[in-house]
TrEMBL record, chain A:
Record's keyword terms, sorted: Amino-acid transport, ATP-binding, Cell membrane, Membrane, Nucleotide-binding, Transport
Keyword match Membrane: yes
Protein name, UniProt field: Amino acid ABC transporter ATP-binding protein (PAAT family)
Lineage top rank: taxon: Bacteria
GO MF terms, alphabetically ordered: ABC-type amino acid transporter activity; ATP binding; ATP hydrolysis activity
Residues in ABC transporter domain copies: 6-251
TrEMBL record, chain B:
Organism: Streptohalobacillus salinus
Classification via NCBIfam families: ectoine_ehuD, HEQRo_perm_3TM
Protein name: Amino acid ABC transporter membrane protein 2 (PAAT family)
Keyword annotations from UniProtKB, A to Z: Amino-acid transport, Cell membrane, Membrane, Transmembrane, Transmembrane helix, Transport
Sequence intervals crossing the membrane: 20-44, 56-79, 85-103, 164-183, 189-211
Superkingdom: Bacteria
SUPFAM superfamilies: MetI-like
Amino acid sequence: MTKPIVEYKDVHKSFGETEVLKGIDLDIFPAEKIAIIGPSGSGKTTIIRMLMTLEEPTAGDIIVDGRNLWKMKKHGKMVEADEKHLRSIRGDIGMVFQHFNLFPHMTILENCMTAPINVKGENKKEVEQRSIEMLERVGLGDKIHNFPSQLSGGQKQRVAMARALVMRPKIMLFDEVTSALDPELVGEVLEVIRDIAKNDDMAMVLVTHEMDFALDIADKVLFLDDGVIAEEGTASDVIEHSENPRVQEFLSRFRS
Amino acid sequence: MNYWSFERFFEAWPYILKGLHITVGVTISAFLFAAVFGLVWAILRRVENKQLNFIITWVMEFIRSTPPLVQLFFIYYAWPVIPVVGVTLSPFVSAVVGLGLHFSTYIGEIYRSGIESVGKGQWEAATALNFSTLDKWRKIILPQAFPPTIPMLGNYFIIMFKEVPLASTIGVTGILHMANSFGSTHFNLIEALTIVGIIFLALSYPAAVLIKKLEVKLNTRFDKNADIKPIE
């Protein structure tokens, strides 16, 4: 059996007095597509933000490719990870945000090129080639010299995906990537994610409210409720056949 | 007695203009000093250390709340007398250090507002792309934080220019000093001081207009190459 690329081991997270995550255990396998669903405020986003090193867990371990993400050995003792340690692991992980977070002072081509060049020290010509191909793949080949302010929300989000993909991560995280979009722009973004999910072999974790979409692409669906994984299984297990009343109540809001 | 003479007026011009390079020189040097030192304040204030933050905040407050003239006098007359650390500075250098230090506290605040205007999402995106701390600043944060501060920096440049005559009190031979000396040898200050006013107006006003233009240009800076308009 293959080994998981990411393991969450009894991970807790509190913000001040509020405990948002109350013990998360989760394995993510290479190439696996996972959808996390659940009511807002249940801690879905926090799960992936901790993997992206944007939030530090209060307790527990996150193991990435056999290495403890938030802790490191120093003089024979386990201590809090420093920036150098985080950087050495973080390169395998990419993330797409709800609010795109494109760099407004760069063209969309520069948005894609800056990290491979400045972070990985890759060859500029090669990165440019790859970035253009990636932007063509997300349907923006004719806009590479535009600035983000000249694009629609759906286009911006597609650039954000191209920017993350150019880094060739082993794990891609999607944080409610369609929530900030006008309804008519959601489809084009989901289409790109579907394309990535079907054709790329990286692991993907999606925090989403798009149930039909989760059903379509996810190998595994997690239902998060009140800081714990309340239900876990294949998409059809959780979304279509769950007997958990909390799941049914939650899903009923999406079916009219 | 004839209190205004055009003859004296025209005679005074070349004499006073001999001080112009000093006035402009102090302005530019002091501004550069303030621009660099302001960055030091801005960085020190971002260090997450309560004691240091407390000290820095009060040092800045102290420098800002004392009159620049007092600071100039202190640097020029009092500092050299202090044992061990005391150094005698020329009038020009004293003026640059004094005005530069005073205005660096304001410029530090401008930088801070510029840095804080860059949203949290930009930091997070840079982290997600695994930028080093230094590159986050160089490639992502400062290129966005700096341009919006340029108009404010420009305004402080003009304000500082108008404070430079203070330096004549410690013997910096700028245009006000020259006007005074012309006036005292001709027993009439009206023409000389009028000329000083005209020079300040002639330099400050175009500079202000230029800054205004720059501001408009900066506000539309990401829309250049706009061959395709936003599609919504």
